[in-house]
Design goal:
39% helix; 10 helices; alpha+beta; 5-stranded antiparallel sheet
Amino acid sequence: MRTVEEIKQNVIDQLADKYELVCIDYDDQLMDEQIVLLLAGDNPFDSKAFADFDEWVDDCCYDAALSVIGDLCEDGEYEILKRDSDALDGIRLTIRERDVSDPFGDLLKATGDRLFRYDLGYDLADGSWAWADEEYEVAALEIAEAAGLNPDNGDLLRELWSLVAESTDGGRLYVLWSGDVAQAVDLASAVEGTPEHDNPGTVTFVEPHLLVLNSWNGSGSEVRVEGNVTLPIVPRRVQLDAAKIGGGYSWTDVAGPVTSAYGCDVTIVRPTGE
């Protein structure tokens, strides 16, 4: 019968170079509060919102490593290792060091499309029901400018006039779209290692919806526009639009939209540097 050290070394000698100790199921998804945290740029591993996830990952790694050890032991040797916690932990930690699974990245990819808002930094005044035509035109042109749209497009301006007319309580202007969570998190972030005030690139939304939302009284209106909306990226302007996530009413709270109806192509272009 081999000694504990001999058993330990024999198992280590048989270990593969890489292991995937954690597997995300196809139906595992991020919760709304976790997505909000990621969009805000907070470290998920310092947050209570990810505490259960971190614990689950540790448990998966622990159980998977023990399974590997058990498979590599000869008859009766695993029971011997179990009586020596230092030896067993030494093998287990060696396996953990060879773990190449990416549970956080896989969870991000597994999460289905969600509805997002990109803040355009423009507030439409309330009371449009009493405005003159000149005031409608000014507001429509300001919305076109904020969204980077062509103000000389007559069809577009008519759509924006309609948006103004339906938004009698005013509100904040957003691009509203449904898309991939990982891309939205990327859009919300600054270029890694670059101060936020430096040029972070541009984002292009292809024929998106524009939304005017009054998040305090739960009103608003939206319209789909033709053409591309191309804007300089401003970090932390992406918001998850979901029910009852705080900070006032979302469009989901107000209108209960079908997420898939707001899909559009989104392209993020980052500076390549010199």
